[in-house]
Design brief:
There is one protein chain. The protein is built from two helices and five strands.
Length: 207
């Protein structure tokens, strides 16, 4: 009986150890792939030649109702060149999409102008709301160069709501959610720019 028990233990260990190793190796590869995908998306909202720091490590996590209603967490990345802030990238969420959360990346330069907007994840209706996705249309390009003063705050809405931004054919809820999420990001940046710059300076001072 002891011999049989020993054999069972050996067989169990022989099966468990390779599985555990495979899971560990796979998890590391998945994490690395996700990081590379995130970096690729960041470089679509700010030019990679503009900064020289490891932007993925220059990250702050914030929870702010002004940025994302509902207590959801946002990630803020700071891009620097020779330790000088050149852009801020906000990974935020539009919680009011037609089919749920729309995860977005928003690039902002030190003057408060948008350098780009990209969709990271959404569940919007194929053929309608999914037109916000950069892989389906150039809808997001309209935001580049815009700021809180261009257009004025009251015009940061889709045209159906009296604003300057186009809605999508057959879909208003999705672009409305995107426009408002971008506006919230600009408002947050405008209100917290000094703090973000101070945090960046402190981080460099610790290195």
């Amino acid at each position: 009986m002891l011999g049989s028990a020993g054999l069972l233990i050996l067989f169990a260990l022989g099966g468990t150890i390779p599985v555990a190793w495979l899971q560990s190796a796979t998890a590391e590869r998945i994490a690395e792939n996700l990081q590379q995908a995130r970096l690729k998306s960041i470089n679509e909202v700010i030019d990679a030649d503009l900064y020289d720091n490891n932007i993925l490590e220059a990250q702050q996590l914030v929870t702010d109702e002004q940025l994302i209603p509902g207590g959801l967490q946002a990630a803020i990345y700071t891009a620097t060149k020779n330790d000088v802030l050149v852009a801020t990238v906000i990974e935020t969420i539009a919680p009011d999409g037609y089919s749920g959360n729309i995860r977005m990346l928003i690039g902002i330069d030190p003057a408060g102008k948008l350098t780009g907007v990209r969709i990271l994840e959404h569940r919007e209706t194929p053929g309608l709301g999914d037109t916000i996705d950069q892989y389906h249309s150039d809808y997001l390009d309209v935001f580049t160069g815009k700021s809180l003063g261009n257009p004025v705050s009251s015009r940061w809405a889709v045209k159906k709501d009296g604003g300057d931004f186009d809605q999508l054919t057959g879909a208003t809820i999705t672009p409305r959610a995107v426009v408002q999420a971008v506006k919230r990001a600009l408002l947050y940046y405008n209100a917290n720019q000094a703090t973000l710059e101070d945090n960046n300076a402190e981080d460099h001072g610790k290195q």
